[in-house]
Amino acid sequence: MPQQADDPFESGKPPTGPLAGIRVVDLTINVLGPVCTQILGDMGADVIKVETPEGDQNRHNGPARNAGMSAFYLIMNRNKRSVALNLKTPAGLEALMRLIDTADVFIHSMRPSAAERLGVSYEKVAARKPSIVYASAPGFRGDGPRRDAPAFDDIIQGACGLADLNRDKDGQPRYFPTVIADKFCGYVLASSVGMALFHRERNGVGQKVEVPMYETMLQFCLFEHLWEGAFGQTDAKVGYSRMLSPHRRPYRTSDGYICVLAINDIQWQRLLGAVGLAHLADDPRFADMASRMKHIDQLYAALADQLLTRTTDDWIAIFQERDVTSGPVRSLTELMSDDYLAATGFFKRYVHPSEGELVMTSNPIGFSASPPNYRFPPPRSGEHTFDVLRSVGYSEEEAARMATP
Question: Where exactly are the transmembrane stretches of this chain (predicted)?
Answer without folding.
Answer: none
